[in-house]
Amino acid sequence: MAKDIKNVIVNAHDTLIADALGAVALIVMLFVGLSLPGTF
């Protein structure tokens, strides 16, 4: 099972980086949205 996980990580290296960047962007947008003053 550990070998399978390692193979998935090695084979999907490019998509893992893109997914991580997307997750970071979502977190940043969440904190920016929460820090805006409530004018609605």
Task: Report on this structure.
This protein is mainly α and 40 residues long. The protein has two helices and no strands. The chain has helices at 2-11, 13-35. The longest helix is centred in the middle third of the chain and has 23 residues, at 13-35. The chain is rod-shaped and about 50 Å long. The mean pLDDT is 88.
As a whole number of angstroms, the C-alpha radius of gyration is 17 Å
Counting H and I runs of at least 4 residues, what is the number of helices?
2
Broad shape = rod-shaped
DSSP strand tally:
0
- Mean pLDDT score: 88
Low-confidence stretches: none
Beta content comes to under 5%
Report the span from N to C terminus.
Answer: 51 Å
**What's the helix-strand series?**
HH
Percent of residues in helices comes to over 70%
Q: Give a short account of the largest sheet.
A: none
Estimated structural class: mainly alpha
Write a short abstract of this structure.
The chain is mainly alpha-helical and 40 residues long. It has helices at 2-11, 13-35.
Short key terms for the protein model shown above:
single chain; 40 residues; rod-shaped; mainly alpha; 82% helix
Compile the SSE list and pairings.
Layout: H1 2-11, H2 13-35
